[in-house]
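for the writeup, i need someone to sanity check this before i put it in the appendix. the sequnce is what the collaborator sent (i think, or maybe the updated version? ugh). structure was predicted straight from it, no edits. if anything looks off just tell me and ill rerun, i have time this weekend
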Amino acid sequence: MLLGAHVSISGSVDKAVDRAKDLGCTTFQIFTRNPRGWTAKPFKKGEVEEFRRKLEEYGFKIAVAHMPYLPNLATPDKSVYKKSVKSLMEELKRTERLGLPYLVLHVGSHLGKGIEGGIKRVAEGINTAFSKVDNDVMLLLENMAGQKNSVGSRFEDIRRIIDLINDKSRIGVCFDTCHAFAAGYDLRTKKAIENTLEDFDKIIGLKRLKVVHINDSKGDLGSCIDRHEHLGLGKIGLRGLREFVHHPAIRPLPLILETPVDSRGNFKTNLAKLKKIYQT
């Protein structure tokens, strides 16, 4: 049972492991650095060793890193693209140092210049990063919600990027339930979930699915609105999310919450809901 949340690294990266343990997580996700800047401060002395020690001590088998917000590999802007590729290379290295197997990447936006060019730029950027950083970290492409100019909201987009990657052993997928629903993939009933995951398998292959972001959706089916909601309070609903986590292809995977923190709930309350629907 790999259930968890995205936790803060405030103070030092190893404190994220403590926070995940205190929440009752059995897996978790982090940014390895400030997600709102381009530059990353080096890890402090002993920080990496403490992170890895706590992972082992607390019994975490899998944890996941996420790329920061600013990089956009689909951008036509040469300066931003160059910085984005550099950031990806840095994050691949930092993820390896922390002993994490996966790094999640938002595919990005083509900014109105066309999805074809966006797909090619994403693949070229990943190929460049892989050629410069040779390690065992698997990069996971996260499906997008279908926002204007986004690349990667359709399974076909993701498949076309994967087809252009030279070393396919280093590429996988992170499936976000809110994003998928917003992009038009129904997850509200057992049959709808079976259809969606059958499509995923035919187009991408379920063997490439490694991590799930388990979020409800503020927006309706096909709304293209990327707004995460507390489990059971959104348009997917607890019934759909329960059927989803009971699907045999989903059940063994790390299920990570990125739900809101507000007056209606937090990661602890959502994790309790997730455990309940997973176990019943």
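The first strand starts at residue 3 and ends at 6. The chain has one domain: 3-279.
thx in advance!!
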